[in-house]
Amino acid sequence: KDVQKEREPHVYLSKEEVKEKIQSYNSSVTDKLKMTLNANGIYTGFIKVQMELCRPITVQSSQSQGRCAHSNNETAFYLPDGCVNTLHISSTNTVREVIEALLKKFFVADNPAKFALYKRCHKEDQVYTCKLSDREHPLYLRLVAGPRTEMLSFVLREHETGEVMWEAFSIPELQNFLRILDKEENEQLQILKRRYAAYRDKLEEALGGVWKPG
């Protein structure tokens, strides 16, 4: 189970410290996704983000792939479990920019304010997660932690319902979301009905066997 971890203070590195860390980072890379330090002090590299989305995302119909939940001018579908996306970013890119880039890569029409980026760390047989603020820089966190994803990984999730700024969404977005919820509710009701119908059949079968004349 994830355990919430308090946000660690940002430590500013000198240009020489950044250069040394990048050299150390690149010497440990096993997947060829190395970092590059530019003359202006900005460095670029790669991060991998796991998509842990419980609710469907909305995309343009022509770009949709996956299990559809609604069909209109836009299509809502569920991303496959465990979907991981690799992004090439710079040290100046913020969490908010990373979220926007991920959504653009998947042709997602949903407002970026619906989503949050988390960092996940493993320590002493515990899994710690921490929601990153919009102003943090994921590539810096990747550099400091090193290339091993078991030390640090990134996860994209929806905001908790109480954290979502619903007033930031348009009326069509909210209406589409209500349609999706209605469909999900109906699907869950049908699953429950089938489950209890199966129980009833087995009980009636068992009762028939008990009372069957010998």
UniProtKB/TrEMBL annotation:
Keywords: Cytoplasm, Cytoskeleton, Metal-binding, Microtubule, Phosphoprotein, Zinc, Zinc-finger. One of its GO terms (cellular component) is cytoplasm. The keyword Zinc-finger applies. PROSITE patterns: RA, SARAH. Its main location: cytoplasm. Residues 163-210 form the SARAH domain. It is found in: Cytoplasm, Cytoskeleton. Residues 71-161 form the Ras-associating domain. GO terms for biological process: signal transduction. The keyword Phosphoprotein applies. SMART domains: RA. Pfam families: Nore1-SARAH (PF16517), RA (PF00788). GO terms for molecular function: zinc ion binding. PANTHER family: RAS ASSOCIATION DOMAIN-CONTAINING PROTEIN 3, RASSF. This is RASF3 protein. It comes from Pelecanoides urinatrix. The gene is Rassf3.
